[in-house]
Amino acid sequence: MYSRREIFQIIFFLGSCFLSMNLISLYRHTIISPFVIPAIYLVAGLTGVGFYFKKMPQQHKNKLKDTLIKFAFCFVVGGGTCSWAFMSLNYYISGQPITKTTPIADRGGYMNSGRTRIYNLYVIIKYNNHLKEIPFDSHAPNGITGFNYVQFEVSRGLFGFEVIKNEALL
Q1: 113 and 86 both lie in a single domain
Q2: Which of 2, 18, 20, 158 suits a disulfide with 93, CB 3.0-4.6 Å?
Q3: Global pTM?
Q4: Structural domain range at position 122
Q5: Mind listing the pLDDT tens digit for each residue in 126-157?
């Protein structure tokens, strides 16, 4: 049977995994360098290892296995939670949106939305010298063919990264 502390650790670990999955959706709607999120994840994960690694009890007789499990736990919980907090604060606390229209730079195929096997069509736009994939509902009758522009609302987030909301094909 698991102790109360182990149950809390399992809940924190699985919760951080779910937050990391939601982080992907937040990234898809934020204009940000692809190196920022892994850097935050790495720094916060290593900080989590530094804070909590020694406090975790030894759970396995094999020291290498125990060390790897503790390292993975601290890294995923620290990095996943901090990265998600950074992106969600930037996304949900944003300024007034401005409506923009930009031509479609390229049309993509299907973007997998997760284990549910829901596939989203996506288009690629060029906005402020960044290429960004914008996912759209795959239940549209003609898909993304016949559209040349994307209209979206963009606003500056709490940390200065632009957030894309309310996308529409034109």
Answers
A1: no
A2: 158
A3: 0.84
A4: 98-169
A5: 988 888 888 876 565 566 778 889 999 999 99
